[in-house]
Amino acid sequence: MRRVTIFGATGSIGQNTIDLIKRDRDAYDVVGLTGAGNIAQLAADARDLNVEVAVTADESRYSELKDALAGTGIEAAAGAGALVDLAARPADWTMSSIVGAAGLLPGLEALKHGNTLALANKESLVTAGPLLMATAKQHGAQVLPVDSEHSAVFQALIGEDLACVERVIITASGGAFRDRPIEDLQTVTVSEAASHPNWDMGTRITIDSASMFNKALELIETKEYFGVSASQIEAVIHPESLIHALVGFCDGALMAHVGPPDMRHAIGFALHYPDRKCLPVERLDLTQIGQFTFRKACEDRYPALRLAREVMDQGGLWGAAFNAAKEQALDAFIAEDIGFLTMAAIVDETLSTLAAGQDLLADVTLENILKTDQLARTTAQEHIKSRP
Ligand code: NDP
Ligand code: MG
User: Fold this and answer.
1) How far is the CA of 147 from the centre of ligand 2 (A)?
2) Among 21, 79, 87, 370, whose Cα sits 20 to 30 Å from the Cα of 102?
3) How far does the centroid of ligand 1 lie from the alpha carbon of residue 33, in Å?
4) What is the pLDDT of residue 388?
């Protein structure tokens, strides 16, 4: 039996992972699950899967979790330290699907123990790409991308020589506002932004899709994971969300990965890799679909993409600053403290402030990453507060 751990089990990716595991229950020994606020779901899945330990990231919810697991023999734990402790337990496969930079430390810990890390948590790569990949290498651990675009690129590259790759194109649905005039965007509501036309995902990534910050994170993720240069990476809008990415080779061939917008494909691919196994996703009927369409992802309309270019060009700690500022700006939008378009302005201002006063090109060590993350958050908050 394979020992698996799921970080962020109560979220959208976590629940899809559990769905796949439950379909082949005897093949897996689920060591631990984690969540944060959704204690009822965490406890229910922990019981169902008879795990060793369930962890909530929220220390104030510990007794609630402990009570919900009373009499089961399942250990309850809470807090950021308990997440890292779980990552240190022996496991073969670890799903990293916490949302935000909070996913970084458990992911690093799992790699230090040689676990295969199925990485949905894109913020880890954006914040600490060089450190994450070096940690994996040092400990002989594998990182497998779960983001649908990166899983698609990974699959298109199997058996290929990276030296023959000319470009990597990742697609973007365009999110909730792809057809709205830019003049209307400052006043859109949180619930409008949190409604995705094609994908069913967590709230934060759905809003990031509408602002194109999700694609910005993914451009950086592509650079960090595959080691291709920024100039080789493009994003195009593909409203159907059926082609997830394309890889262009030096002989002119473009290899496209086509599939339904269902994360169980990318999760299942990472779960079974290097094998391919049957997955419960829709089989596409191309004659029904009829056509695939593409549009330019314009950096004037989506400043997040321009900022991502700058982050990729600069490297170093720019990714950590970018991600933390984006998380703060997103919090402020969700709290209705700032308008939709102000999110990108806050990230831009935060990067400018930090670049002027800090060495964002210092070594990408854990200490520097955590310091930059914290500083970017307080700087972004100051910029948010200074808004009328
Ligand atoms: P959700 O918001 O649905 O789930 C997030 C998970 O993280 C939940 O288990 C949540 O717990 C937990 N969590 C929230 N805050 C913290 C914290 N501070 N510390 C520890 N755990 C926390 O997110 P998604 O599943 O949509 O996304 C997860 C990750 O995967 C993100 O990085 C996202 O960008 C990436 N991703 C998601 C895709 C998708 O289709 N959803 C596609 C590609 C990538 P609780 O719910 O109990 O509060
Ligand atoms: Mg994606």
Assistant:
1) 5
2) 21
3) 13
4) 81
What pLDDT sits at residue 4? 98
Query: What is the position in ligand 1's atom list of the atom closest to the CA of 98?
Result: 7
Of the candidates 106, 61, 113, the residue with the CA atom closest to the CA atom of residue 90: 113
Residue 56, beta-bridge partner list: 35, 78
Is 131 in the same domain as 163? no
The Å distance, Cα 95 to ligand 2 centre, comes to 16
Considering every ligand atom, which ligand is closest to the CA of 201? 1
Q: How far is the CA of 65 from the centre of ligand 2 (A)?
A: 31
The mean pLDDT of the chain is 97
Judge whether residue 173 has pLDDT over 90: yes
Instruction: Give the distance (Å) from ligand 1 centre to CA of residue 35.
Output: 9
Model confidence, pTM: 0.98
Q: What is the pLDDT of residues 178-224, one digit of tens each?
A: 999 999 999 999 999 999 888 899 999 999 999 999 999 999 999 99
**For range 132-160, the mean pLDDT:** 98
Q: Which atom of ligand 1 is nearest to the CA of 9?
A: 9
Closest listed residue to residue 383, CA positions, set 353, 340, 362, 360: 353
What is the number of domains present in the chain?
A: 3
Which atom of ligand 1 sits closest to the CA of residue 16?
25
CA distance 211 to 180: 12
CA of 64 to the centre of ligand 2 (A): 33
Pocket-forming residues, ligand 1, beta carbon under 6 Å: 8-14, 35-38, 57, 97-100, 102, 120-123, 147, 199, 201-202, 204-205, 263
User: In this structure, are 155 and 289 located in the same domain?
Assistant: yes
pLDDT digits (tens, 9 = 90+) for 86-105: 999 999 999 999 999 999 99
Q: For residue 361, what are the domain limits?
A: 315-388
- Residues 6 or more apart whose CB falls under 8 angstroms from that of 12 comprise 200, 201, 202, 205, 263
Nearest ligand, measured from the Cα of 264: 1
Helix (H, G, I), strand (E, B) or coil at 256: strand
Residues 295 and 371 in one domain: no
Could you read off the pLDDT of 29-60 as tens digits, one per residue? 999 999 999 999 999 999 999 999 999 999 99
71 and 193 inside one domain: no
Q: Which residue has the tokens 């990949």?
A: 133
What b-and-e string marks burial along 45-62, b requiring 16 or more CB atoms within 10 Å of the CB?
A: bbeebebbbbbbbbeebb
